[in-house]
Specification:
Largest sheet: 4 strands, antiparallel
Bound molecules: zinc ion
Number of strands: 7
Strand order of the largest sheet: 5-4-6-7
Radius of gyration: 21 Å
Oligomer: single chain
Structural class: alpha+beta
Number of helices: 9
């Protein structure tokens, strides 16, 4: 969805809400979640109500919106600014939202968009070492990341070096390293996608300032997704993925 069309939707909260519900981001309840009665409806006070057992629940129940406190229009703008690759910090400033809230949302976006296996890193909440190797495989002009070397000596690794600016803030440099001697890294047809990816990723990691490993890996995973899916309408894909994952 283009910005100009979104601007129409976010004019008022009702339209924003209807839009989110039509995309399945907000859930439509046909049954009461307690007594299973079909006599349910929306009340004026931002809630659903069961007219059989009198239960009430918020319109955000079971949706990604239950994680954050912001208006429906603000949520839509967060999705749009994520698509346009504003950082969480810039987005928070532009929308006058809490930075942590936006960061949490952006990480959720990254997880659903890239089908990121969060279990891979959940056991490792520690900070990144100052140098970290991530393994790359290039296949049919697409790039796949691995956190362990599952390819043996044939793998190409990406060296990420962290430089601290101050506590909690760093910048990252990435380069290809540890190449198997048998493989030439000169730009050849074989490695064209790889070199393209490095350029693509360098530009994007330039803006990344966090120091948490989880955040960095999620951002990297998003960069890979964007690289592998050029021309994709991220806003629409994100909406689809959110509706399927929540
Ligand atoms: Zn009920």
């Amino acid at each position: 969805m283009k910005m100009i069309d979104l601007l129409e939707v976010i004019q008022d909260e009702k339209r924003s809400e209807d839009f989110l519900r039509s995309r399945g981001v907000l859930k439509t309840f046909t049954h009461c979640y307690k007594c299973n009665s079909t006599k349910v409806g929306m009340t004026r006070s931002d809630r659903w109500k069961c007219y059989t057992c009198e239960s009430e629940w918020t319109r955000r129940k079971d949706s990604i919106l239950s994680l954050v406190r912001m208006k429906y229009s603000e949520f839509l703008l967060c999705m749009k600014l994520f698509e346009l690759e504003l950082t969480a910090e810039e987005t928070a400033t532009q929308l006058k939202l809490n930075y942590r809230t936006v960061q949490l949302l952006f990480n959720e976006f990254r997880i659903v968009l890239t089908a990121f296996d969060i279990k891979k890193i959940i056991s490792d909440q520690t900070l990144l070492k100052d140098e970290e190797l991530i393994y790359l495989v290039e296949e049919k002009e697409k790039i796949f990341l691995f956190h362990k070397n599952e390819m043996g000596s044939g793998a190409i690794s990406l060296k990420i070096t962290r430089h601290f600016i101050q506590e909690g803030t760093a910048y990252y440099k990435i380069e290809i390293s540890n190449i198997n001697k048998m493989q030439s890294l000169k730009i050849s047809k074989q490695h064209l996608a790889l070199h393209k990816f490095i350029r693509f990723a360098k530009k994007r990691l330039f803006d990344f300032r966090g120091t948490g490993k989880k955040n960095l890996l999620l951002r990297l995973s998003e960069i890979v997704y964007r690289f592998n899916n050029p021309g994709v309408d991220i806003f629409s894909c994100l909406g689809k993925q959110i509706s399927q994952n929540y």
